[in-house]
Structures
1.
Amino acid sequence: MAAWDPFLDPADDGPQDLKVELDRHPDPVLKDVPLDPWNDSTFVALAQEAAREAEERYEAAMKVLEMQQESERKESEAKEARRLKLEKEAREIAKLSIQERRERLLERQVYAEMAMEAIGQAPAIAAMHRKSKGRDLDEPEDLALGRAAAQIAAADMGVKINFKSKDEASRPVALLFPDQNSKSLKMLKGLQELPEARRLREASRQLLGFDPLEGPGVLGFYELLRGPEGWLEHTQFCQPVMYLTQLAAVEKLRDKRPGALERCKAVAGLSLGDYAALTYAGVWDFETGLRAVQLRAEVMEAAIAAAPQAALAVAGLPEELLQQLCEQCREASSEASVCGIAQRLFPQGFVCAGTLAAMEQLLERARRSQGCKQVQWLKLAGACHTSLMDSAKEELLNLLESFRSSMQPPRIDVYLSCGTKVPAGRSPEALPELLAQQLTSPANWSDTVALMLQDGCGEFYECGPLNQLKGIMKRIDAKAHQATVSLDVYSEEGQMKPGGSLPPRWAQGAGCLS
């Protein structure tokens, strides 16, 4: 048999079709010979086979698509039917009284799903409510539905929501700034997502010479032994970073609840917190306040190094008894000993400070006193608000005097920790003396809070770490404690999450949660 010639024209006389040759000679070697691409019948057969395969793939794809569309349609119908059913049931509940509604909703966990949907619709509902000013809608049915559903969702997550009345939602807001005893490592970490907080951090870094989030680095072998938080025990570093954290926390409040700042009518600070309060009130700008805090911290650090001193937290003893104990400790020590009340935080809750020998005696005497609930050392090494700060007082006053001409009247009321109120619009002439005198005079925080409550402040936001002031508020006024929120200044990865901290924003401008 002649070999197959791929260049041979099929129209010419020559060998027969390869298929015929294979049928005639069933030799396995010949079966491996490729098909003739020039043969018309072979080409048509291959094209027809390819077309059948393409059609089968198309039909299979169409069946899959139809199945998906049918599944989505059924799911959508089921979801709509479930939504209508839950909406109908929730509307019936909304018609009940508040007490009946709570009892009913707590029994029926089925409303949890409707609650999550209602939360998503809450901004639109609140917007509708705000636009309907001309109508008498104290609590529209849709708004009642949203509130009831949100309460169920919160209860399902273990959170209690207290909706405020119109009067409560219009109460004046006060910002609270704690002292340096609230310090905590990485307390700026959770605020770096805010552009303005990052700007404040960069401005502080330029002025202080170190990154407030990272610290100045290891200062010596002692810092290595104390661990990564050791640098915060230095007053000269701790106070400027606390000042920055407090004002950066205000930016978080601005981001999460801008309405609260619109209603802010007052600020109050405990010791160091006075400087952040004055900055927010517009008395001076951020950089001026930071320079004042920086010098304050440096002169206090120098005064602390001049004589061994310490501070104690004492709770459970009447002020008269504690004053007697302090006097006994002074008499039992040397003539130059100092021992006295430095901060009046809440009824029978104090910080005492003085020379180390006198404070060691006070620790033992307070422990043996009947009724004493707590007495412990504070990490703060200095005896602020005592006569041991006399040298720091003079230097601080000189700096503040240089700022006097640039100070502005506060735009809102300022309650200083010494118990003095500076009303909005009043001349700041007396501020340098008040702030300098603060270093050697007791801080009367309980009187400050009482004065704010007397003036009508009904909602409080603690701008700083560790929710120290929120805990103190509980011992001053129970209702005010319920109206106090601590701003979270930590990262989400951090383990420290203070109780009662500000929840994430779930509905911008919804107006349902205050």
2.
Amino acid sequence: MSSALEQARAWAAGDPDGETRAALEATIAAAEAGDQAARAEVADAFSGRLQFGTAGLRGRMGPGPNRMNRVVVQQASAGLADFLVDREPHPSVVIGWDGRLGSQAFARDAAEVFAGRGVRAILLPRLLPTPVAAFAVRHLGASAGVMVTASHNPPADNGYKVYLGGDDEGSQIVPPVDGEIAARIEQAAATPVADYPRGEAEVAGDGVWRAYVEATAAVGQADQGMQGATGPRVVYTPMHGVGLETVEAVLAEAGFPPVIPVPEQARPDGAFPTVDFPNPEEPGALDLAMALATAEQAELIVANDPDADRLAVAVPDDGATGWRMLTGNEVGLLLGWDAARSARGQGVLAASIVSSPGLGVIADAHGLEFVQTLTGFKWVSRVPGLTYGYEEALGYLVNPGTVRDKDGISALVRLLTLASELHERGSSLSEELLALAGEFGAFESGQVSVRVTDLARIPAIMAALRAQPPTELAGARVTAADDLALPEHGEIGDILRFTLDDGSRVMVRPSGTEPKVKVYIDATSADGPPAQRIRSARERVEALSEAMRPLLA
């Protein structure tokens, strides 16, 4: 513990942020007085460095190398700058930030460090959605992009997401580049941040945002000519994030009627006061939207997460709330079918390996290639010839020609275009799901997640399932138990896949961004009329979910 306290004192002496410095000094004093919680906090904050990987950096804010703070952000920026300077003669970087606490300060620190190390630094003009930053990398021809965001993580978190331009076309970083940048960060961290050279960043004009708005609005004008059409009445929530301004501008540009924002969640607020977790997937996150939609007699709810790279959708239902949130796979298959019918036999549909196998069936029926990728949208977005890609965690890419990352705003526009087309025909998204089940069979999915406070539980759960995989689940025999980390299964990652004799599939993996173990369950049915198919597949998903819970204890 004395070593951690020594590191903490040294950190406090050089911390440029008065707020985190004061907090750390108070924690050090409490630890020295014997406070066990303070001692544990110091030990954890100085137990190592926050790992830089394919998601860049993401973690809890606070002082210390194992937290997100101004020192860690400046070190990361110095390392990324050195990587870019070695890579090309005149590198440039676009920097965006969202509405989370600390995001703007992190973005400005990053820009000054980039500029001081010979990288042209271009700050976006104000807090904006992540898809705008991803778009800006390609639009401005930048060497790289940085987005300061923790997406849908808890309020105490923040992050630093990295894109590469050039041949990478504005996609997120992948191995081995992440390791090369991480090594440069380690080298840069050997020098106190107070000694880093600083420079002045440029501030982009509003033209970048306007170009994104125009390109994204065009997604909603394709083929159907829906401009000016009368669509369903829609309630929208940006979940206390940065989506509203851009969504309203894009929909106006595309000719859609205005959405009805949830007033309590309409403006950016990094404290996320109305939700326990600012993630549309979490129970209760859409309660305010559902209440407003009922009061306004709306026919559809759409939601973005706080940085607007994900999309959630809810439709009218006979349940207690009057609404049902569609799963990521249901939305993914709707948008996939929409993309497939427009592709005219040319292009590729892609989904991550834990997403529904139903997209492959749709692709085959339309004469399109289907590609399954590793988990993470960084892989989906890099598929050659991509027409459309998605991952079950509410991530969709409908316009790979302009953005190479999941984009909750363009997906929203495309979904409203589809919903408006159906509305004009007297139909709805729910009825279209029935039609898809009738044409392709029902593909239902579900998830079981175990959130942990002790991170050691995650590898323990995975190890127990590897050592003793189930032989039967919910009355179905497990015909194959595959460890996808092994060479014979492509070394895809820390994923266990159980295939059942009724055609169901169960996959288990640690979350890449949260302290969770996640179980993905897929079931299918082609027997009987569409509603019966869906009901049968859902019953299998529920049964398998219950069967898996004891195995995660």
